Amino acid sequence: MKPDIHPKYQPVVFQDLSSDFSFLTKSTMSSKETVKWEDGNEYPLIKVEISSHSHPFYTGKQKNIDAGGRVDKFRRRYGAGVKK
């Protein structure tokens, strides 16, 4: 392996913003933000929108989200020809 071409593999904390869940793992990602972990050490903090703690596939909870009223817009436009 060539020296000094690989990213640094280090412990980082990932924080799920949707469920306020955090976990410590190793990654090549880096961040200017840091957080003090349970062991008293500071680690880079990577914020993510969704993780296995909040994703419907892993939690078994299905969320039906109508993004911006798309279903209603479709029904208004094509409602007469759509059969249920």
In terms of topology, how is this protein built?
Elements: E1 10-16, E2 21-27, E3 34-36, E4 42-48, H1 56-59, H2 70-78
Parallel strand pairs: 1-4
Antiparallel strand pairs: 1-2, 3-4
How would you describe the overall organization of this protein?
The chain has 84 residues and is an alpha+beta fold. Helix content is 15%, strand content 29%. It has 2 helices and 4 strands. It has helices at residues 56-59, 70-78, and strands at 10-16, 21-27, 34-36, 42-48. A 4-stranded mixed β-sheet has the order 2-1-4-3, with no helix packed on it.
Rg (C-alpha, Å): 21 Å
Coarse structural class: alpha+beta
The average pLDDT score comes to: 82
Number of β-strand runs: 4
The N- to C-terminal Cα distance equals 61 Å
The number of helical segments is 2
Strand order of the largest sheet: 2-1-4-3
- Broad shape: elongated
Q: Which sheet architecture does the biggest sheet show?
A: 4 strands, mixed
In short:
With 84 residues, this protein is an alpha+beta fold.
Give a quick set of tags describing it:
2 helices; alpha+beta; 4 strands; four-stranded mixed beta sheet; 84 residues
